[in-house]
Structure formats: structure tokens, C-alpha cells
TrEMBL record:
Fe(2+) binds at H203, E284. Belongs to the ferrochelatase family. The gene is hemH. It is found in: Cytoplasm. This is Ferrochelatase. GO terms for molecular function: ferrochelatase activity. InterPro entries: Ferrochelatase, Ferrochelatase_AS, Ferrochelatase_C, Ferrochelatase_N.
């Protein structure tokens, strides 16, 4: 048990994920994409060029296109990303209760609701004095983790009586994350056997961002190398690719969809695919990776393509969050 100086109601941990539309319908998707794609951490083109393009062309067309994809993955309880995040909050709360660590657990979303600012305001109004922010991104990128930090900074700027805040930057190297990832592959192998290769398809970012100093690509490579070592697999059987490119700019390569077209021709016809950048299954995994990309691979001559789920609310994933929180609470 961690001994803390303040009482139960004065500590909080906020899990933060990207956010998702409120409903799988065009107006809700437009509102979500407008906020998301107007964030300079995500798209850094000058507003004078970008906003007319975004509002006039991208939002109307893309919202209609992705509405069908969202409808195909939506669960009765809501968007998978939100439902899984809520399950993670519940499971982490239970684990922390077991350790009698006095900290309340909640979540916020970078885009959409509950927003980071409103969540921090609510916590402070209820008497919370010390807050751990845990972005649910194992690999740091300015497009995701720093976008959260920006919103925490916005809250700080407009708040008179500040809480103490600790921010967990990334965890791809954490032994329990490594164990959780390797464990999820091993349990998949126990059920279905091994494939010829593992494809780690990370969400992409513009290549330019890496040249400007974003360490995301390096973190992705380290994740893959660690996974190969932890599984005792040769590194060449753990292939890295990048998915979900938006726009015309060069993003990190190889692109997942292009690579999947080529692999059967190179003799890899049985593939297991996972996406370690996602702490929760979402549109990008359940639709793009598990359905759309499978069709590409099978059409190109692939024989078997299995998607290995994100770590979601699995016990080892929640244990990881618990350990991060306990580490962050040290000295408080
Ligand atoms: C346009 C630039 C984008 C960058 C850069 C980007 C980085 C990035 N995103 C995630 C995680 C998620 N992205 C999701 C959806 C999504 N991403 C973009 C664009 C960029 N992402 C768009 C436009 C969308 C919406 C869907 C679409 O229009 O194709 C999601 C899923 C949300 C859901 O509702 O399920 C996640 C999660 C990471 C990790 C990342 C960089 C490391
Ligand atoms: Fe994205
Ligand atoms: Fe996508």
C-alpha cells in the first residue's frame, strides 16, 4: 500500500484517450473531426490555407465516408473506444481499491467529451488536489501526447488555485507493457498457432514531424524490437508498418495497405497483425486493420490474416496502469 499525505478524495488519476464521435452519424462525426483536425499538433498548416479546405471539402466528404465505417463497428453501448476506456477506468479503480491506494479514477478525451479541461475543473471543484494524467499512448508523439499536455496547459492558464499535476509521458519501454504485449501474442498463439510473421501496424504520422524531432518512429521501432526479443522471435519476422494516412503528404513508411499487397508475393501468406499504438480497439483497428486491410491481403494472395486485439481492459493492461499510477504517486 502506498501511504499518501492527503485523503482519498484529494487524489485523482485521469486516463486520456483521443476521443470519438458522440454518435456514428454525419453531424456528430463532423463536429469531432472539426475539433480534431483543427488542432495544430495534428495538422500544422497555416489556418488561412487549411481551414477553408477543412470546412469546405474535407469535413463534408470525410464525415460521410467514415460514417459508414463507424456504423459498422459501433456497439450497442456506444463507440468501442469510449466503452473500452470506461471499462479500463472501472477495472483500474477496482485494482486500486484492492491495494487500498486512495485515488479516484476517471477519464477524459482530447477531442469531444468529457474534455480534459472540464474534467480537471470538475475534479478541482470536488476538492481534488493532486492529479496524475495518464495519456493512453504507449509511444509518445507530439500529435497525441503533447496535444493532451496543451489542453492541460490551457486549464492551468485559466485556473487561479492550481492542483499539483503529474504527467506520464510514455510507457512503451515499461516491463509490464512489454509483458502484456508479448502475453497477448502468446495467448493468441495458444489458440490459433503461430503465423509466418507478425505485422505491427502503428498509426502513422507525417514523416516531416519526425524530422522536426518527434520520437514516435523510434518508439515504434523499439516496441517492435522489444516484442521480438520478448517472444524469442527473429526481428525480421516482426514487421513494422504505419496505417491511417490522411492527405497527400509523405507519412511514415512502409504504409500498411501497400505492404499487405506485397507480402504474399514475397512468400508471407499467413499473418498475425496487431497495433501496439492503440490502448483500446477503435475505428482504426476494428474496421481499417481487421476488415479493410484483411481484404487487401487476401485479395493479393494471402491465405490467413488474423487481427490480435488491443490490450483493452485485459488484466495485465490494467496491472500496467496500476503500476504507472503507483510509481507516479511516489513521494506525494
Ligand atoms: C490528420 C492527421 C492525423 C494524425 C497525425 C493522427 C495521429 C494519430 N492518431 C492516433 C489514434 C487514433 N486516430 C483515430 C482516428 C483518426 N485519426 C485521424 C487523423 C490523424 N491521426 C482521423 C482523421 C481519424 C478519424 C477517422 C478518420 O477520419 O479516418 C482513432 C480512432 C477514433 C475512434 O473514434 O475510434 C485513434 C485512436 C494516434 C495513436 C496517432 C499518432 C501516433
Ligand atoms: Fe489518428
Ligand atoms: Fe483510418
Amino acid at each position: 500500500m502506498t501511504k499518501l499525505a492527503l485523503s482519498l478524495s484529494e487524489y485523482a488519476v485521469v486516463l486520456v484517450n483521443l476521443g470519438t464521435p458522440a454518435a456514428p452519424e454525419v453531424p456528430e462525426i463532423q463536429a469531432y473531426l472539426k475539433q480534431f483536425l483543427s488542432d495544430k499538433r495534428v495538422v500544422d498548416y497555416p489556418d488561412i490555407l487549411w481551414q477553408p479546405l477543412l470546412r469546405g471539402i474535407i469535413l463534408p466528404f470525410r464525415s460521410r465516408k467514415v460514417a459508414k465505417a463507424y456504423q459498422s463497428i459501433w456497439w450497442p453501448e456506444g463507440s468501442p473506444l469510449r466503452v473500452i476506456t470506461e471499462r479500463q477506468v472501472k477495472a483500474l479503480g477496482k485494482r486500486l481499491e484492492l491495494t487500498e491506494t486512495p485515488v479516484q479514477v476517471c477519464y477524459a478525451m482530447t477531442y469531444g467529451q468529457p474534455s480534459i479541461g472540464s474534467t480537471l475543473e470538475r475534479l478541482c471543484a470536488s476538492g481534488v488536489k493532486r492529479i496524475v494524467i495518464l495519456p493512453l499512448y504507449p509511444q509518445y508523439s507530439a500529435t497525441t501526447t503533447a496535444a493532451i499536455a496543451d489542453q492541460v496547459a490551457d486549464f492551468v492558464k485559466q485556473t487561479r488555485n492550481l492542483p499539483e499535476i503529474r504527467f506520464h509521458k510514455h510507457y512503451h519501454h515499461h516491463p509490464t507493457y512489454r509483458a502484456a504485449l508479448a502475453g497477448s501474442v502468446r495467448s493468441h498463439w495458444q489458440k490459433y498457432g503461430q503465423a509466418e510473421a507478425l505485422l505491427l501496424s502503428f498509426h502513422g504520422i507525417p514523416e516531416r514531424f519526425v524530422r522536426l524531432g518527434d520520437p514516435y518512429q523510434q518508439h515504434c521501432r523499439e516496441t517492435a524490437a522489444n516484442l521480438a526479443a520478448d517472444l524469442g522471435w527473429p526481428t525480421e519476422k516482426v514487421i513494422v508498418s504505419f496505417q491511417s494516412r490522411v492527405g497527400k503528404e509523405q507519412w511514415l513508411t512502409p504504409y500498411t495497405d501497400q505492404l499487405l499487397e506485397e507480402l504474399p508475393g514475397k512468400g508471407i501468406k499467413n499473418l498475425q497483425v496487431l497495433s501496439p499504438a492503440f490502448a483500446a480497439d477503435c475505428l482504426e483497428t476494428l474496421e481499417e486493420l481487421a476488415v479493410e486491410n484483411k481484404e487487401i491481403f487476401m485479395h493479393a494472395g494471402g491465405e490467413s490474416y488474423q487481427y490480435v486485439s488491443a490490450l483493452n481492459d485485459s488484466p495485465c493492461h490494467i496491472r500496467l496502469f496500476e503500476q504507472i499510477v503507483l510509481q507516479q504517486l511516489q513521494g506525494w
